[in-house]
Structure formats: C-alpha cells, structure tokens
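Quick one, T. Sequence first:
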Amino acid sequence: MKKLCILILKVIDFACVVLLFLMFSSMTLQIVCRFLPKAPVWTEEFARVCFVLMSYLAVPLCLAEGSHVAVDMLVNVLPKPLQRVIDIIIYASVIFLGVVFIRSHMVNIRSSVGVTTITMNWLKLNWIYTAECLFFAMTIAVSAMQIVMLILGKGAHLRVLEPRKSTLTEEDLGL
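Structure tokens:
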C-alpha cells in the first residue's frame, strides 16, 4: 500500500512539473503575442486553470512530505506520544474537510454540465471540478496513510521526494 501511494505521489509530482511548464509556456506566449496584431485570448485563462489544478494537485504531495504550512511551536514542546495524537487529529480533520469539499464539488459538477470556460470553449467547468474531486480523494488517501503510519509508529511522513532532496549539498546551493 505504501509503495502504491509513493508511486502515485511521484506521478503527482511529475504532473505538477508539467502543469508548471504549461503555465509558464502560456504566460510566455501571452507576453510575446502582445507585440503581434492578433494575440490569442485564451492564454491567461489557460495559465489560471493550470495554476489552480497544480495547487490542488500539490496538496497531497505536500501533506505526504510534511512540507505544508503548520504552526507547531506549541506542539513541538509536547511529549512525543501527545504529538502523535495531535498529528492523528490533524490528519483526521483533513479527511473530514476532504469529504466536505468533495460533497460541495458534486453540486458544482452537476450544476455546470455543459458550461465551458469563457475563452476555451473546449474546456468544460465540470471537468475541472471533477479533477479537483480526484485531488481531494488523493488527499484523503494520503491522510489515511499518514494516520496508519502514525498508529504503527513508522514515522510521520512518506518522504516521496527524499532522494531528490538528499542529492543537493551546500556546495550545490552556493553556500
């Protein structure tokens, strides 16, 4: 189960890189085309859709890595068993919020069938909402995996990108 989760998270990491590249390319095209008499009108909206999808897609990855924003000043001074309990409560809260978001997105999916974006007539809004539901489902799965790992005492994070991080040295960073 853990290997499957790590494989999915590596695919998510690759998808985030692709979305970042598409967003960058779209914005570059928009800047270059400002000097042309007829510029494409879809570039800004395409970049925005890529940014939103990348943001949602990165949530399970950040959660698995432990690189999400957290105020843990008080939690760090508590005993380790109590820290684990608080982490379990946090991941359970993420699961609860993921279920709430999926339920709310189901309403959006049903109400936006056939509705397209303003400048990209081929992109339906319910496709975007469906993708966001899938990303929330991945977030729920990662949170559940984190809870299981905490209960079994096998660490708090999956460390999907650990090999990549360990290859950087202070010398590489110019420090």
